[in-house]
Amino acid sequence: MTAQKRNVDIHWFHTFILEDEVTGEGMSTEPQDLKSVNLSDFLPSVSTMKSIRANLTVLWSRIITEWIPAFRPLKKAVVKHIPHPYTDEMTKQSNVINGGLLFKNENDSEEIVDILKMLQSTYVPTIEETNEEGTSNTVVTQQVFLGGDQLTEERARNAQRSMIDGDTRYECLDGLVPKNEDWHAFRIAFEKIVKMIRKPESAGEAGTFFSNATITNNSNAKKDALNDYRFVKEPFHLQVDSYVVSATVNELGAENIDDVSIPSHIAKSSMSLQRIWLHSFCRKLVDKFISLDKQVVDVHVDMAEALQRPQYLCRDETCNHKPFVYEKARNNHERKCHPSLVVQSSTEPPKLKESDSEDYIFNYGCVIITLGLLIRNADDAVKEGDGERVINMWSTLLMFFKCQGNTKYALAALHLIAQMKGILSPRDAHKLMWNRSVNTKESKRKGKRVACDFHLENLNLILKMSFKHLGSNLNESTARREADSLHFVKDVVRSFNDDLHLKKPLGLHRAQKSESDFKTIFKEIHNKCDMFTYTGGREFAHFPKLSRNIYHGLDVKKLKDWVLDWKIKWENEANRIKAKK
């Protein structure tokens, strides 16, 4: 590279088309009214939390039947694939069509508009209508979703916002509906979780995540959770398993895993009775160590209080003035109209010191179990193509993102919920919920789906490898040819591998090393730290006063104002679009 010949930084837009597997046929196509949506509807509902509780119960049962010998006879009773209304549809291979490359840069405000215009003119169904004046207009007959990560979705919406003064919906680029995909969002959530529970300075505190990684000499567990996502994920889930098993063994009053036993009649019962008993047992543990329902209910209560306008009455008993909205206005009124009024100064009650009976080490274990199982539930939902469960996780993570200061993804979650409940038609909302993943496997097996943005990342990786081989011959013409042939090349390579009986390694370490690491971590948590025996006054030096509430520190009043501001903004935008043809 010289001053005259520098490396070129290329930003092109790669696409693929995914045919809807759930069409929402027969549902209403009339847009919903966002104005009628209450602010509390943006928070997880009671039914949502009930569903998540049931999901976490299943995940808990999978873990203990995997690692605790006494529970292994119940392994056949475990729900391996959580069912949903479209389970059969999600086992079929998806119809993926190559969209090719657009030689535009989405980072540029003008070029992202060009990208949307190209996509709309190519893929959005339209008809030509002639008005009374004889002018022909292009009318959108059906909107098409444009998926991407948070940045792509935000840029697309901003581009549409810049074109909102167009005369028709087509000119406003309303034929495309930007949507947030799941892999990038759950990856960001994973990064925030690891940041909460992993601190290098806690290496000397037995039972903490970093200490466990050090004891097992697992360098992957110490890597960057965002850039080395897939490397950190495996040891993370192994540690979560260790915490879950330790909590279970502690609840059963056993010293070690091998000391655990279950009722003899359960082991001999039918599979249906075993499942009932197992889920009942795991549900109690979920309620004790996670208690997510209560945390969400507390936010709902605080939200309801924040929505109520305060009223300040004049403290003169003979005054009939209407209640004041502001305390200062009430005080000014009293000084002006009742100067002789004597008001006793209200002294605030002294703040109580934090109870020394709180066990913050126990809280640390509960936080890891809660967040670990939540992110596992999100991943499992994507694998199963369970759109309803995925949306539930977005709803749950909205407040978590807000607590962690990740406003971008909190806003992405808020907009997704707004689309579901008030912006889109019931039919489009249904399609948005259920068409969120890709199945590239030909065999009709459950749990083989991946998020759409993850599939695109894999395609980008292959395409970049092919570009590398082009060397100095890389230009728009050769790049287009490589992109157009990408899916065919993948099919040829897969065919060769099948003919030669070549199988790619899974990359999972479920053999002796994982088992030995699990036992080491379990001893650290259960025997050395005794994490789940509640003992007041304990805490880790580097995780002081850690609350087990994953929404701890959330300012509900600010949350209410933030949700209300965006809700009004999206209402106005939707109304302007509805007024156009």
Question: Helices and strands in order, then pairings?
Answer:
Elements: E1 13-18, H1 46-67, H2 87-91, E2 96-102, H3 109-123, E3 126-130, E4 136-140, E5 144-148, H4 150-162, E6 176-180, H5 183-197, H6 209-215, H7 229-251, H8 264-267, H9 271-289, H10 292-307, H11 327-337, H12 360-384, H13 387-403, H14 407-423, H15 426-434, E7 437-438, E8 450-451, H16 452-470, H17 476-484, H18 486-499, H19 512-528, H20 556-578
Parallel strand pairs: 5-6
Antiparallel strand pairs: 1-2, 3-4, 7-8
Helix pairs in contact: 1-7, 1-9, 1-10, 1-12, 3-4, 5-12, 7-12, 7-19, 10-20, 12-13, 13-14, 16-17
Q: Uncertain runs with pLDDT below 50, 5 residues or more?
A: 345-354
Can you give the mean pLDDT?
89
Number of helices: 20
Shape: globular
Largest sheet: 2 strands, antiparallel
Share in β-strands: 5-15%
Distance between the termini: 53 Å
Q: What structural class results from the helix and strand content?
A: mainly alpha
User: Major sheet: order of its strands?
Assistant: 1-2
Helix content: 40-55%
The strand count comes to 8
Order of helices and strands: EHHEHEEEHEHHHHHHHHHHHEEHHHHH
Radius of gyration: 28 Å
